[in-house]
Amino acid sequence: MVNFRFLVGIFIFSVAAFAVHAQPSAQIDTADWANYRNDKFGFEVKYPKSLHENSITGTVDNIPIERVEFNDKTGKGIQFVVQRGINPNGLSFDQWTADQLKKFNKAPPQLKNVTIGGRPAILLNQMIFDYRSYSFHVSLNKTDILTILIRRPSTETQLDQTYEAILSTIKFLN
Fold first, then answer.
1. Is 154:131 a contact under the CB 8 Å cutoff?
2. Which of 81, 109, 79 minimizes the C-alpha distance to 97?
3. The model's pTM
4. Residue 139 has pLDDT above 80, yes or no
């Protein structure tokens, strides 16, 4: 779904990723969580108050990247990366994904179709070095893609309920 250069760029810029339909978790009460809303990014999300916000901007492969991350004291957390103009032809999300897969020299990564904030998304779940990376990709608009990155221990076989709950609170603004 994502071209190799993008994956390397995200890895360098900051890695992460796993799978689940972002459904509300019955086990986690998000009522007292903090709310992050960014009209420029085009979404809002709730997150535990134990996580701290950090915003970063830059470029990867000449594509403008805007990122906000929410980390705990150990540096573990979740990142939201907006890739401006990565779909310059305004392809449908399915077509853009298929187009990106064609760019792999080797077998493309295994992807899972999921839903984030009511929108179709794809999940790339992989082991990177000594951790598991969950990478969700969803279209923000005709040209911009939102990538949600979660880095977890390699021993984790399912996404932690806290992160499932965070994903379940994502709302798109347009």
1. yes
2. 109
3. 0.79
4. yes
Q: Is 62 left (phi over 0), alpha (psi -120 to 50) or beta?
A: left
CA distances (Å), 113 to each of 72, 120, 124, 133, 140, in order? Answer: 29, 7, 9, 16, 16
Q: Report if residue 128 sits inside a domain.
A: yes
* pLDDT single digits (tens) 87-120: 999 998 888 888 887 776 666 667 889 999 999 9
Rounded distance between C-alpha atoms, residue 130 and residue 155, angstroms: 9
User: Which two structure tokens, joined as six digits, stand for 152?
Assistant: 């977890």
User: Does 165 fall in a domain?
Assistant: no
Q: Calculate the CA 86 to chain-centre distance.
A: 15
- Host domain of residue 132: 4-154
CATH number of the CATH domain containing 129: 3.40.1000
Q: Is 107 exposed, middle or buried (0-12, 13-18, 19+ CB in 10 A)?
A: exposed
Number of independent structural domains in the chain: 1
**Nearest partner of 126 among 98, 149, 100, 101, judged by Cα:** 149
In the sheet that holds 77-83, the strands lie side by side as 52-60, 63-71, 77-83, 145-153, 131-139, 119-128, 111-116
